[in-house]
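Journal club prep — side note

Before the paper discussion, L.F. wants everyone to see what a predicted structure for a comparable chain looks like in token form. Sequence:
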Amino acid sequence: MDMKMSLPLRLSKYDANMYRALSLFPKELEEKPLSPSEFTSHFKDFYGRPVQDIVEALHRYSQKGYLKFELTVAPEYLNHGQTLAKILDKLSGSSVSPDKNHELGKLVYDKVVAGQPLTKVEASVLPDNAKSYLAFKLSNIDRVRLSDDLAIYDSRTSRLIILGGKTATKLPPLNLKDVHLEPDSYEKLTGVLHLTRFYRVAIAGKSSVKRSSGRKYEQCWVMECLFKSDETIGKGVPISTLLRMHKDNVDKTTTRKIENAVAEINKKVTKVTRSKNLLMIGDKKVKITPYYL
């Protein structure tokens, strides 16, 4: 699985604004190197930010697959260094030997001469006077994916708009290959299961995860036990553990409570995902079905 794409989509307001700006970035400017001022004119959230902050953000979006990003130093910077040396010559009345690598270091200097893109680390150590000569180039912007992610983002609550097991927007079909369950996939405090970045299921519904007595509802208790660790996710949990009793005391009558809880969980999951059951019972255990592992 790439980039933990199964994690819930949790966008900050800053990221949401950037997604909007990226989805609106003029197509005719893709593949074209833009100066810092030209580039930031399309992204109001970059106004006044240090260059390295911009580089870090674009690198992050690139790593997530939203776009391709290249950063170069315009060749004019090299001319600037030569001009500066001549000015210093005149002011000092003596010959000033310019830094042959223009304060860039040989590796970065060679890249600038060859017009090759810099890495994030290389950009971070550029001298300040070189940063004004940076050129930003975006390409392969995935506007469809950006729009899809924005469609399910609520800027007022910074969460997916999925309430009570019902989705407020049309979601793409669930691909079980995108599901990668981890202990954090189930939020035991809220009773919400995150299957992928698009799909989340409210196991607790509109109720709390606990009764007024403080005891967990069976469905929430089953899920909490299953998502306790990677081992319980992979191997399941004994019914006796879920019933909080010795295994010798487990019978058909006591098991029925767990069977009902499993059936309700599967009903909620399949209603949202329109896919396979999440849970199964076998070998006196409740397990996550192989489809989701």
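L.F.'s comment for the group: The chain has a mean pLDDT of 78. Keep this in mind when we get to the figures.
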